[in-house]
Write a structure and sequence with these properties.
Radius of gyration: 11 Å
Mean pLDDT: 94
Largest sheet: 3 strands, antiparallel
Number of helices: 3
Order of helices and strands: EHHEEH
Structural class: alpha+beta
Strand order of the largest sheet: 1-3-2
């Protein structure tokens, strides 16, 4: 899934993948709905975290199955 992206995504990548704005992206990160970390002020988002988020939200898997 999302082979064209690097293993660590930026906020812009996250917005593009989910077709959301930056405010929504930051809300997902601050709410810990998508696992990520910061280096200084820059968010680093593992691609796998976004894939897991999509699978859970689409109810294709349960959170405990990941």
């Amino acid at each position: 899934m999302f082979e064209e992206y690097e293993d660590l995504l930026s906020i812009e990548d996250l917005c593009s993948i989910l077709s959301i704005g930056k405010k929504t992206a930051y809300n997902l990160l601050h709410g810990k709905q998508i696992k990520a970390f910061r280096i200084g002020h820059i968010w680093k988002i593992p691609k796998r975290s976004v894939e897991e988020y999509i699978l859970i939200k689409s109810k294709l898997v349960k959170p405990s199955n990941l």
